[in-house]
Specification:
By secondary structure, the chain is α+β, with helices and mostly antiparallel strands. The protein folds into three domains: 22-99 and 341-353, Alpha-Beta Plaits (2-Layer Sandwich); 110-138 and 155-239, no CATH class; 245-337, Gyrase A, domain 2 (2-Layer Sandwich), CATH 3.30.1360.200. The protein contains nine helices and 15 strands. It has helices at residues 2-20, 43-61, 89-97, 110-127, 152-164, 195-203, 205-208, 276-288, 325-337; strands spanning 25-34, 68-72, 77-85, 102-107, 172-173, 186-191, 215-219, 232-239, 249-250, 254-261, 268-274, 294-298, 301-304, 316-319, 344-353. The strands form three sheets. Strands 4, 5, 6, 7, 8, 9, 12 and 13 form an eight-stranded antiparallel sheet that branches. Strands 2-3-1-15 form a four-stranded antiparallel sheet, covered by helices on one side. Strand 10 and strand 11 (268-274) form a beta hairpin. Helix 2 packs antiparallel against helix 3 (89-97) and helix 2 (43-61) packs antiparallel against helix 9. It is globular and about 70 Å long.
């Protein structure tokens, strides 16, 4: 009798647990408008935005087409999703407004920038003299020996180097043992905690004036692969080649994308197919940058920076970047959905409970 009671209790507990995880279905309605209104936020732009939203909901969230209704008014998009469960609300809101971007940029070589970095380091040192307007965050000298006990001579040496090299003490230049610039668009490595200070230095007006006007900087999205501590991030020199200072090629040109692994199941690549205009631009970029790097920038961070071997025509190409297959598939789904023509924001949301 006792065994039967225990067995019955287990069944009841299991049923209670199952009931607690049942997801309630409802209709979800949201109103979306452009973040700012300009020449791009016209009817054509809203139609494009609605198309991207529709694809994202299908490819990324997995909502069937028949459950999606989009109504486009003069200045807004009204989205109604039928039979949606509670677990997907946050993802839906993020997907609808996410401004995920993929950009392809031309770059400077490290050898072309190291001289400017040296001048910046020298100027920062001069600005540290009494009466300087430079305000620097005081940081403890790092113990590079890995020991808890201080090495006075070592700390004094580090402090002296830091005082004499404000920039290079936190942004290690990419040089060989003989002092030659390593071939790459990566111009330096910095500890993650120091990247904000590097940014503040490079944004100072006097420092910016030292560099070419068509130079901008982007950090790597992942730690430097050869750094065992996984705390160092690369800084890349991007070359601006367009009048509007935007990337010459973006993910909006991608019409097909697919993730695949190599024979060892570790070498993950993303194959891309571009539309005719994108293919033409890509051929021009690769033709004019043979033996130079092209930076693949995703959401403002460099994901890959392959060196061009030859012109790539036809609009088919591959990108790598130490992706996991999950990361690659997420990026593929984003690319298949397209990019929003402008930033969007949700101004109204409503849950409509089903009868």
């Amino acid at each position: 009798m006792k065994a039967k009671i225990i067995f019955l209790a287990l069944i009841i507990a299991a049923l209670s647990s199952t009931a607690s995880t049942i997801k309630e279905n409802f209709d979800f309605k949201i109103k979306v408008v452009p973040q700012t209104f300009n020449s791009m936020t016209n009817q054509s732009g809203l139609n494009k935005a609605a198309e991207v939203i529709n694809k994202r909901l299908i490819y990324i969230v997995g909502i069937p087409q028949e459950n999606i209704k989009l109504d486009i008014a003069e200045t807004q998009i009204v989205l109604t999703l039928h039979n949606i469960d509670t677990s997907k609300v946050r993802m839906i809101k993020n997907v609808v407004t996410s401004s995920n971007t993929l950009e392809f940029w031309e770059t400077y070589e490290n050898s072309e920038i190291i001289g400017y970095l040296t001048k910046a380091d020298d100027l920062l040192r001069a600005m540290r003299t009494p009466g300087s307007t430079l305000k620097e965050e005081k940081k403890p000298i790092p113990d590079l020996t890995g020991k808890s006990t201080a090495n006075t001579a070592g700390l004094d040496s580090l402090k002296q180097f830091s005082d004499q090299n404000p920039l290079f003490s936190i942004l290690g230049p990419r040089l060989t043992t003989t002092g030659e610039a390593l071939p790459s668009c990566m111009i330096g490595l910095a500890n993650e905690k120091d990247t904000s200070m590097v940014n503040s230095y490079l944004k100072m007006d006097k420092i910016k004036d030292l560099f070419p006007d068509d130079l901008k900087f982007y950090w790597s999205s992942e730690p430097y692969k050869y750094d065992p501590s996984k705390s160092l991030y690369g800084l890349h020199a991007i070359k601006v080649t367009t009048e509007n200072r935007r990337a010459p090629l973006t993910g909006s040109a991608i019409i097909a994308a697919e993730a695949a692994t190599g024979p060892d199941k570790k070498d993950v690549k993303i194959s891309l197919t571009m539309d005719p205009e994108g293919a033409k631009t890509w051929a021009k970029i690769t033709r004019e940058n043979i033996s130079r790097c092209i930076a693949v920038v995703y959401n403002g961070y460099v994901r890959s920076y392959p060196r061009v071997q030859n012109e790539i025509s036809g609009g088919n190409t591959e990108i790598t970047g130490d992706f996991t297959i999950e990361e690659a598939n997420d990026l593929v789904n984003t690319l298949k959905s397209g990019q929003l023509p402008f930033d969007l924001k949700i101004v109204e949301e409503q849950i409509l409970k089903q009868e």
